[in-house]
Amino acid sequence: MKSKDMGINVSLRHITKRFGKAKTQVVAVKEFTFDFPPGKLTTLLGPSGCGKTTVLRCVAGFYEPDQGDVFIDGQRVNDLPPYKRPTGTVFQNYALFPHMTVFENVAYGLKIKKLPTRSIQEKVAQALALLQLSGLEDRSPNQLSGGQQQRVAIARVLVNEPKVLLFDEPLSNLDAKLRVYMRGEIRALQERLGLTTIYVTHDQEEAMSISHTIVIMNKGKIEQAGTPLEIYRRPRTPFVADFIGTTNFLKGEVQEVDEKAIKIKMPGIIISLRFADGYKPGEEVWLVLRPEMIRFAEEGEEKGLSGKVQEVSFLGSLARYLVEIEGGDQIQVDEPNPKHFRQKGSAVYLILDEEALHLQKVK
Ligand SMILES: Nc1ncnc2c1ncn2[C@@H]1O[C@H](COP(=O)(O)OP(=O)(O)OP(=O)(O)O)[C@@H](O)[C@H]1O
Ligand SMILES: [Mg+2]
């Protein structure tokens, strides 16, 4: 197991995959085209049934696409069975052999390849050390914790020295705390090995924390791909904005545009933003903004959008407000470490973080 393998290319071109026939046919993946960044961890994120597992299985070779091509390291692999591809898959249910010890589970693939015993022992020891499992060689899977079983599943894949790592919801059988811990471990391992990695999850927080790149899928297609920050701050479609936490969409009207700035008229105020291309005075726009990028004006500051608090809830690390602004729109405002609560019905002014604000056309 070399460390820092240069990641290899995985490229999907116009992949379409259907299941079933005639009336009951499902198009699981439609015209999916993407180049996975070599050596990086890319997450496929989206709601249940959007086609994440199907894409992953097309890369692994468990499914053959109906249309389109799968390239790994520049080679078209559509016709190659899984075991001939340089991929290793970690499944949600671990798929460990219950009657074999940890050592035998990890050694299994190498035995099939008929490697010499010495070499098998060395490679297994290395993989177990990498996953902090040394000393547990003789246990059977039912004598391990969920986290340890998951690590055995990863060791069993890594021992075969794959060039591409594939994970399908690997943490969903673990409790919340262990999930957070293990995702840190997987990310650290990925960075250390530098393998091109594709990771499937429907948990947006997990995707945010673990990924270099996130691909948001909806109904078999890509909605948006980008870094976690891009996806979060600049969701390109309402679907993405909605899927990745809560977003406020406020309607405004372009008042003035020059080379430097764009002025937007909102109820009661004018907001000035850095120049954005393609907007004309008089045009209606959405101002897209996350709840934590809005703050209440301090006492005496009295500027911003005026509104009235409709609802207050305390969520431990933050207070969440629903505020009705002039004109009747409702905005969610999240205030971290609230010092004092604003009462329901109280009048407030909201200040929008203009750096974090992003404009979208009203279609
Ligand atoms: N073997 C199959 N036979 C028939 N239909 C299938 C098969 N596999 C997947 N599908 C259908 O294809 C669509 C995409 O499924 P897929 O498993 O890729 O979704 P997913 O995004 O991984 O969902 P989840 O988050 O629930 O795992 C779904 O509508 C599913 O019912
Ligand atoms: Mg799935």
Query: In the CATH hierarchy, what is the class of the largest domain?
Result: Alpha Beta
The count of helical stretches stands at 8
List segments where confidence is low: pLDDT < 50 over at least 5 consecutive residues. none
Tell me the Rg in angstroms.
Answer: 25 Å
Record the strand order, biggest sheet.
Answer: 6-7-8-3-9-10
Helix-and-strand structural type: alpha+beta
Provide the residue-averaged pLDDT: 91
What is the percent of helical residues?
Answer: 10-25%
What is the H-and-E element order?
EEEHEEEHHHEHEHEEHHEEEEEEEEEE
Largest sheet: 6 strands, mixed
**CATH fold descriptor of the largest domain:** Rossmann fold
List each distinct ligand once.
adenosine-5'-triphosphate, magnesium ion
Shape: elongated
CATH homologous superfamily identity of the largest domain: P-loop containing nucleotide triphosphate hydrolases
Overview of the molecule:
This protein is an alpha+beta fold and 363 residues long. It has two domains: 10-243, P-loop containing nucleotide triphosphate hydrolases (Rossmann fold, 3-Layer(aba) Sandwich); 248-361, Nucleic acid-binding proteins (OB fold (Dihydrolipoamide Acetyltransferase, E2P), Beta Barrel), CATH 2.40.50. It contains eight helices and 20 strands. The protein has helices at 52-60, 102-112, 117-130, 146-158, 176-193, 204-210, 228-233, 238-243, and strands spanning 10-19, 26-36, 41-45, 67-72, 75-76, 87-90, 164-168, 196-201, 213-218, 221-226, 248-257, 261-266, 269-274, 284-289, 294-296, 305-314, 318-325, 330-336, 347-352, 358-361. The protein has a six-stranded mixed sheet, sandwiched between helices. It has a five-stranded antiparallel sheet with strand order 13-12-11-14-20, with no helix packed on it. A five-stranded antiparallel sheet has the order 15-19-16-17-18, with no helix packed on it. β1 and β2 (26-36) form a beta hairpin. The longest helix has 18 residues, at 176-193. The model has no long low-confidence stretch (mean pLDDT 91). The structure holds adenosine-5'-triphosphate and magnesium ion (MG). Magnesium ion (MG) is lined by residues 52-53.
